[in-house]
Amino acid sequence: MRGGRAGDRLLHLYTWLIILWLSSPIAVMILFGFNDKRSKSNTTWQGFTLRWYAELFDISDLTTALANSLKIAVASTVITVVIGTMLGLALGRHRFRGSGVTNFLVFAAISTPELVMGASLLSLFVSGNVPRDSVTIIVAHVLFSLSFVVVTVRARVVTLDPSLEEAARDLGAGAWATFRLVTLPSIMPAVLAGGMLSFALSIDDYVVTSFVNGSTVTFPLWIVGAVKTGIPAQVNVMGTLLFGAGVLIAVGNAVAARRRS
Question: Rounded to 5 degrees, what angle do the CA atoms 161, 166, 167 make?
Answer without folding.
Answer: 100
